[in-house]
């Protein structure tokens, strides 16, 4: 399995939309699709597409805010067939490394759900807060942080 990453291109939009829908409603509420597509329109330069054997299997965004030395991970998801294969860990690690390489962030924030929090916890993120039914009924908000100075 050959895993590679590249910056999002407009031609990726349809495939990412299809993969997003495969993750609805377990990981995302249906109404979040519009928010995700808006995110790509505005922040696509900071969105990474994950490919396995040159086929798009998902992606994830990241951001760096130098004003308060914070980085973040956003809108990560994979095709269900790619989940549990190591692609998600590779994608998260790639984005974390991009933030680290900037030298501007002291922490990395992720806002996720109960379905993905354990994944980030295994990567060293610690829980900051939990809010039930935040994203949608049955989809809670878990805010977690990775301290880069430890």
TrEMBL record:
One of its GO terms (molecular function) is acyltransferase activity, transferring groups other than amino-acyl groups. InterPro entries: Acyl_CoA_acyltransferase, GNAT_dom. Pfam families: Acetyltransf_1. Gene3D superfamilies: 3.40.630.30. CDD domains: NAT_SF. Residues 3-149 form the N-acetyltransferase domain. Transmembrane segments: none annotated. This is GCN5-related N-acetyltransferase. It comes from Runella slithyformis (strain ATCC 29530 / DSM 19594 / LMG 11500 / NCIMB 11436 / LSU 4).
């Amino acid at each position: 399995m050959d895993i590679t990453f590249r910056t999002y291109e407009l031609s990726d939009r349809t495939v990412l939309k299809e993969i997003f829908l495969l993750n609805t409603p377990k990981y995302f509420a249906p109404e979040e699709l519009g928010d995700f597509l808006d995110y790509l329109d505005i922040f696509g330069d900071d969105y990474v597409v994950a490919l396995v054997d040159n086929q798009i299997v998902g992606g994830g965004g990241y951001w760096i805010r130098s004003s308060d030395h914070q980085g973040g991970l956003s809108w990560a998801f994979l095709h269900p067939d790619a989940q549990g294969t190591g692609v998600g860990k590779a994608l998260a690690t790639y984005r974390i490394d991009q933030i680290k390489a900037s030298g501007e962030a002291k922490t990395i924030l992720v806002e996720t759900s109960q379905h993905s929090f354990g994944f980030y916890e295994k990567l060293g993120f610690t829980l900051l807060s939990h809010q039930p039914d935040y994203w949608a009924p049955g989809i809670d908000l878990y805010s977690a942080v990775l301290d880069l100075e430890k």
